[in-house]
Every structure is written in structure tokens, then in C-alpha cells.
Amino acid sequence: MNVVASNKVQSMTASIFQEVADRKLEAIKRGMNVIDLSVGSPDFPPPSYVVDTLVKYAMDPTKYGYTLRGTAEFHEAVCYFYKQRYGVDLEPEEEVLQLMGSQDGLSHLATAFINPGDYVLVPDPGYPIYEENVILAGGNLYSMPLVEENQFLPKLDEIPEDILAKTKMMILSYPGNPVTALADRAFFEKVVAFAKKHTILVVHDFAYSELIFDGNPQISFMSIPGAKEVGIEFNSLSKTFNMAGCRIGYVVGNAQALGVLSSLKGHVDYGVFFPIQKAATVALTSDFSALQTQVKEYEVRRDALISGLAKSGWQVVKSPATMFVWAKIPSGWTSRQFAFELIDKAGVAVVPGDAFGKLGEGYVRIALVQPKERLEEACSRIHEFLFQYSE
Ligand SMILES: Cc1ncc(COP(=O)(O)O)c(C=O)c1O
Predict the structure, then answer these.
(1) How many A from CA of 211 to the centre of ligand 1?
(2) What is the mean predicted confidence (pLDDT) over 50-60?
């Protein structure tokens, strides 16, 4: 029997990531020592007290049942974290919803809020699930170009009125993936006014809220007056506390919107493993000194990569945030040619920019998920590669 994916699944963009993974494997099979800078999974460990908590509760056989929802303690911990880190007050029961990673919530967004014919505004380039969740739900997409000339912010005034009349939701992420740009308060204020005027639910993905460099301000969308009336914000323990494999995150903000997501979740999952919830609670209420150290370490890696690439004449913009460098590639290549050849010939794995949308063409995403020395080794391999294969 030939089992064929639905049209919806076939139109999703995951195939590029698969191709990167396949080429990586092939290179390894050929005996290459591949430096993998393709996947945004942190290589740093979680704080030791987080691991200790997880182990302690995992040893208790009474903690293996369904949890169904976030514990009250976890909800309180999110409120504490948001107050401490971003100066935002949240109501623990109504304005916090626990997720199995923010991906869990992002993938169900359009199913929860969108009917056929409704439009969703998404960034291009953007994190793939923003588009894919809309495709899966049968909604319509309108891409908001993020270009360097406009500091990677969408031009809201250029979205046509007839699209706005049918738009129910917009997705933003600052700092984002792959575009690592930050938004300022003035932009977010404009978004709140725009959303009110056109009755649009704003979804802000703040997964990289704690990887912001060079003393730039960490601005939660929820700290903008009126934001809770129009929006929700996703956050995660994956990057902040290096708990990506634990699958725990949350969404905060508009109580009505969270209620809708929560009722959908009631049908699709039965909650996060209790020991993981406990570990996450400890992480969110810690003294946060580990966060500062971590930011410094990512800054060191970023600087090593940027200056290493500059030695080959490849000038790349310094990321103000996140664990990525969004690098415009040298001329003469497409993103895919460049990324795939780089894996095949140099054993350095990065993601071609068009995996994130049409406007990602001409870029690659490089993840800072290896120690400085390994990034320096990647730079020397890239140096050789450019010398041998560039026009
Ligand atoms: C921008 C962005 N949002 C959300 C996620 C999902 O993270 P998680 O489901 O681990 O919370 C990622 C993961 O890489 C991401 O890059």
C-alpha cells in the first residue's frame, strides 16, 4: 500500500530541515567530524538544582499519573518570574497556561482561533510553525516582510485594508528565530493600537527572552499598556534554563484567549510529567544568576563566530539576541547550495535561510550551540571552503 501524506502535510516546509539532517548523516557516514550548528537545542546543562529536583521527584512512584494541567505552584512561579524579569503582573489562574513546550501552543493556535477564510499575519522570514499551524487549520496566510532596511520590523501600514478586514491573528517574535532583531517599546505600542483598531489577536513569541545581549532591554509585549486586552505571549524553559528536552513552556496574557487554548488542550494532551513541573518551578523561582553567566557565554560564542568569519572576508551582522546568527551569504550561491555544500565539503551544518520563508533566501542560520573552540574550528573550515569553492 502506498501511504500518501495529506495536501496540508505535503505543503509544510519541514523537508528542508530533513534534508539538512540527511546530509549531516551522510557526511558522518563518510567519516566526517561534522560540526553541527543547525539545530537550536542548547548544549549548556540546566542548573544543577533543576536536575536535582527532577531526579528527586522522578524517584517517587506516586508522581507518575496524568497531571492534566499546570500545578498552582507552577502558575505562581511564572507570575513571579514575569514580575521579576519583565515587571509584568499576571493573575496566576486566568492569565497563565502551561504548555508542553511553547511549540505545543504555537502548533494549536490557528486550530483554536481560525475559521476557513480567516487570515493570519505571519513574519517572513519566521519560525516555521507560525505558517504551518495556519496551513493545518485551513486558514489563510498573509506574509509580513521583515527586511534589514526596516530593522526587521513589519510595516503595518502597508497591509491592505481588505486583508485586515479578514484578519483574526498576527504572530510576532522579538527577538526571534531566525531573525534575531529586537523591537522597541514604540513598535509594540503601535502593535497594540493596530490590534485594537482592527480587532486582531496578537501572538508574541518570547522564547528567547533571556538571551538578549550587550545590555539591550528585555521587553515583554505584556509590559505594554493595553497588551493584555489584545494579546498573548509565549515563553519557554527550553532556552532560558536549557530544558528543551523536558518539553515545558507556557503562554501568558489575555484570559479569554488562554481559556480557548486551554479547552482545546483538554482534548489533545493530559499535562506535563509532575517531576518536570517541579523542576520548572524551581528554575523559575531561582536567583537568576545563572542567566547572566549564560548570556555572557553566548556573547563570547557570537563574537568568536563573527570575528572568525570576518577573517575570511565574510562580514556578518552581530546578533543582538538569541542563540543564532542570521548571516547573509556571500554572493554567487543560493542558500541551499551554500548550506548543503558546506555540510558536504566542510562538515559544518547550518540551515538554509529559505527554510524560514521566501525572504530567507540569501541567508543561512548558524546556531551558537557549540563551545567557542568548536566555533573557531568551524570558521577555519569555512575559510578553506570559501577559498576553494567561491567564485
Ligand atoms: C522562536 C521559537 N519559538 C518557539 C520554539 C519552541 O520551543 P519550545 O517548544 O521548546 O518551547 C522555538 C524552538 O526552537 C523557537 O525557536
Answers:
(1) 13
(2) 98
